[in-house]
Model the fold of this input.
Amino acid sequence: NAHLPMELSRKTVGIVGLGKIGKEVAKRLKGFECNILYYDTIRPSESVELELGVKFCDLEEIFRKADLVTVHVPLMPETRQMVAAGLLNLMKPSAIFLNTARGEVVNERDLYEVLKERKIRGAGLDVFGKEPIESDNPLLTLDNVVLTSHKASTTVEAISNLVEQVCTNLSRVARGQRPENIVNGL
Done:
C-alpha cells in the first residue's frame, strides 16, 4: 500500500501557518471534505475559523493527528528549524509532509532520517536549506520524496499578481499608508 496513491478526500490535514497562503490552502481543502487542523502564532477570529472550516491545535497535535502536514510559515528566527525530529517522529507512518514555505523551516537531516527509516509515508518539498538543491543532498537518494524547484512564482499569472501587489503597495506608501503583507512587521 505504501506505493499506491492516496486520496485527499476526507483526510485530516494540518496547516502550519494560517497566513494568506495557509488560508488559501484551507479554502481549497474544504472542497475535499478534509478535517482541517491549523497552527499559527496569530489566531484569526472565530468567524474566520468557521468560514474556513479550520480548528486550532498545537503543533504536536497536528503532527500526531494529520494524514498530511503542509507548512506555510515565513522564515524568521522563531521558525528556523521549527520542524525537526521531535515533531516529525510524532507523525503517523501513513502521513505525508509538505514544505513549500522556506527550506530552513525544516531540519533536512531529521526529515531525511524519518523518510529513510520509513517512519512516514513520504514528503513533497519545493524548498531546501540551500537552493538550488545541491547534487549531494541525501534527499535526492530517496524514493519516498518528491522534490521540485521553487518555481511556482514564475508563472504568467504569478508575475502579473506580483506586479499588481508592488503597484498597490507603492500607491499605499505614497498615500502614507502601510504596505500590505509585511512579514517582519517593520
